[in-house]
Amino acid sequence: MITLLFSIIFSTCIFVIFKLFNRWNISLFQAVVTNYLAASILGFALFSDTWDARAMEAPSWMWFAILCSVLFISLFVLMGLSAQKNGVALTSTAVKMSMAISMLFMIFYYQEQVTILKWIGIFIAFVSVALVTFSKEKSDSSKPLFLLILFLGSGVLDFVLNYVQKFELGILSPALFSAFGFAGAFFIGIIILSISFLRKKEVFHWKNVLAGICLGIPNYFSIYLLIQSYKATGWDDSTVLAVNNVAVVALSAILGFAIFQERLSRVKQLGLALSLVAIYLLYLSDLV
């Protein structure tokens, strides 16, 4: 449980930091690229002693690390842009509602036993997320595209991370897999960033590096601890994912209200209350 709790906290911190970037006039892409360097260094520094050269004898995990690298950096940039344009709660919802895709994959691909109680919990989870993000404001033309890509891409990423942890890692630790994925995202990002510098579309500032470091720490642990949670909780993988996502949406909405004065209407308050009900029912469903 402790790994899942801290994964929720670190994931929520990412959305809050993205929102602060807008206030501090941080270059989003410079910070994101630096974030992946910081996250990979952190992973290698903390868990290099778990490396076993035999992991290279069956390197299929490397292809998944490359896929995750591409998804990491592309989704992270979109997440940052969306958090600044759409607000913390709406962006976190687009990402976390993607659990619909990954949960269905997990339930049917792994042939999980789903009780009526769990289906009720899943239904209430989606209702709570919809209510938390309810807004009467009209969206501009860029919002639907951002949210759709985040929805689809995040769902694929969640399932890939889970699949790799179950079938592809072998003797490679989840901690190092995360570090390799982040390192790949950094190399992709630094190539793009270098081209932007040469074309003078980006101007280097140290504050962007510092911001990226601040982002990289919670980013690394949010992924690493989520992967660990699949094993540590003893719950079905779909339950872990649902609890994680609903909790992040609820906590992001609360912090968006408390820190950024984002509106917390009665409908959103009802959604927050239902999110607690959903989490409790999903928890109970894995006990019966």
Any overview of this molecule?
This protein has 288 residues and is mainly α. 80% of the residues lie in helices and 0% in strands. It has eleven helices and no strands. The two termini are 18 Å apart.
Key descriptive features of the protein:
288 residues; mainly alpha; globular
**How are helices and strands ordered from N to C?**
HHHHHHHHHHH
- Give start-end ranges of low-pLDDT stretches: none
Report the total helices: 11
The main β sheet shows up as:
none
Cα distance spanning the termini: 18 Å
Q: What percentage of residues falls in helices of 4 or more residues?
A: over 70%
Strand coverage percent: under 5%
Instruction: Give me the secondary-structure category.
Output: mainly alpha
Regarding quaternary structure, how should these chains be classified?
single chain
**What is the overall silhouette?**
globular
Number of β-strand runs: 0
Write down the overall mean pLDDT. 86
Please compute the radius of gyration using only Cα atoms.
Answer: 19 Å
In a few lines, what is going on in this structure?
By secondary structure, the protein is an all-alpha fold.
Q: Topology of this structure?
A:
Blueprint lengths: L1 H22 L4 H20 L12 H27 L1 H9 L2 H11 L6 H17 L9 H27 L5 H25 L7 H27 L4 H24 L5 H20 L3
